[in-house]
Amino acid sequence: MRMHTLFDEGLTRRNLLRLGLSGAALAALPWPFRGTAAAAGAPHFLVTFYCDGGWDVTQTLDPHSPTDATDGIDVDVPGQPVSQLASAGPLTYVANSVARPAVDTFFSRWANRTAVVNGINTRSTSHDQSRQLMLTGYLDPTRADFAVMAAHHNGADLPLPHLLLSGPSFGGPFAGLSGRDGGQLRTVLNYDRIPGRTDQGDAQLAVSALGEAYIQQALAQQQALDGTGALSGRLGQFTDANGRGDRLVRLASSLPRGDNDGAQLATSLGAAFRAGMTTSVTIDAEGGFDTHSNNENQSGRWDELFSFLDAFVGGLLTEPGVAGPSMLDETTVVVVSEFARTPELNGDNGKDHHPFTSALLVGKRVRPGTFGLTDRQQEGVKVDFATGQPSDTGLVIDVQNMVAGILTLIGANSAEYLTSVRPFTAMINA
Fold it and tell me: What are phi and psi of 334, to 5 degrees?
């Protein structure tokens, strides 16, 4: 193809301006873009839901008998509907059909694709510290969280490997792979596109006469260089960057402004994953779990969370996958909070901060079941890391072990990111 034809199709007034508008977003992206990683084989996407505040896992994920008054663990607030232990498939959980019906609905539908890991030691009861520990395994600002590390492993060459829709994230050495859908990035991605030769009647942005003159001058100067070959080495990069900009624009426009509709979010993320936009997404899910008073409020938060997750996982199941039958077959969903609540109610019928927490995982390569265990003080016990069952020769699950385990689950060599940390792997299907 002759150079002037490439120029006519690729370096239009519209594209030149759009490149400038997209520059802020593209500056942080890996260069050059080498193609869509997902197209190379079976992809593995990750969606991380972060539940702010520190949840009371004894109401759902960490099974302690609500009727056992000898173990020092208060599941229910006095005077409220009484919970009970329940099972669904290989899972054991705490149910309350009156206060938390969505929990039963979720596990009845998805227990055979779900793992619960209990007894994870966050080592802190500070919101900020435990948040960083739960996501990265370290109290070190140079460390990345597992969602960003997963993006580095599974999609470093994508336009936006890690998409932060909301909530906390730690980019560490891979900060250039992560972008928050908000602020300047949202402004760039949602900017009205400049009309081109075919849409002059739909102008969205008026350019001054002086600005138009500068544009035409720049185009003329670049055309004059055509014969020297000065542009030929850069044209491919320009076209590639312009294409990434277009894809980012489409990604932003396809995602919901709010994340309160699980089915809609699944549809949007399914489209983003299939388009090769991103491979890892972080979202601030239902929050408000910080119940120092009136622990009854935990029930409403859990019900809202599981109602959302049920719709989201169901949506992934109906979304076509890239190489598999559904997006759920190619996506792992991880749900965490920064820590849990104390075993006993305080004087205000609430619960305070407690370092031993749980995690919920659904989807690709997830071995269904309940793994890990807490004792009568709701503290993690030693478990075999391969089976997740109690073992005198095992270890208490530390946040570092859990982060390394999630990286292993999504196909990474965790030792490349967390040196000398043993991954907890009981929740992984071979």
Answer: -120, 130
